[in-house]
């Protein structure tokens, strides 16, 4: 276990993706990732300085020296909860890929979970790491990386299958990022993985966000992919990145 971590950002905002879209959370964004998706909008490289909001939701950040200790984080979270009682639904641990920082999660999650429910946002590839911290989590948002949008040059299907089986048993949702290049075969792979565990697990289809603010898929194609997924699963939703539309962190 570790009492310190390298944090790229700590801030309060509205969750823009998945099951808790529209809910306000406190986000703790850890550095490092085991993947390098071409659409990723996060700088997860290790740095000697991180960013922390000066006030919850202000959008104004100050530099913090790395690594950051757990008492510093819990003190800040407690202050924000006191300042804005009832405003926050949960704490989102995101990245990068949080499960790369397994020692940090093992040390931090018990304390953070006493303050708010903990929501893990993960790329869904590190099942062995998840097994060690699963009892400390309340919610998991798992990505399944499609070859058509991730740009990753190796298959992740087996890793995703192992992760999905390991994550099952607590509040769980799956997200995929789709574009005009996404194929029905990929949707078939995703829905097959989910049905192999539980066809009631929610699937969120997220249109690829482009740098100019548009999305990388037409409405007709998007609806065709949704229809295909919905014919095989009981809960399929289409949600763009809401925080981008709001201009929020």
Q: Any overview of this molecule?
A:
- The chain has 249 residues and is α/β, with parallel strands linked by helices.
- It has one domain: Aldolase class I (TIM Barrel).
- Helices cover 31% and strands 24% of the residues.
- The chain is built from eight helices and twelve strands.
- The strands form two sheets. It has a ten-stranded mixed sheet with strand order 5-4-2-3-7-8-9-10-11-12.
- A hairpin with a 7-residue loop joins strand 4 and strand 5.
- Helix 3 runs parallel beside helix 5.
- The longest helix has 14 residues.
- It starts with a strand and ends with a helix.
- The model has no long low-confidence stretch (mean pLDDT 92).
Topology overview:
Layout: E1 4-5, E2 7-14, E3 24-30, E4 49-53, E5 61-65, E6 68-69, H1 70-83, E7 90-94, H2 102-113, E8 118-122, H3 127-133, E9 139-143, H4 147-150, H5 157-167, E10 171-178, H6 184-195, E11 203-207, H7 219-230, E12 236-238, H8 242-246
Write down how many β-strands occur, each being a DSSP E stretch of 2 or more residues: 12
Task: Please indicate the percent range of residues in DSSP E strands (runs of 2 or more).
Answer: 15-25%
The name of the CATH architecture is: Alpha-Beta Barrel
Low-confidence stretches: none
Largest sheet: 10 strands, mixed
What is the structure about, briefly put?
The protein is an alpha/beta fold and 249 residues long. It has one domain (4-246): Alpha-Beta Barrel (TIM Barrel).
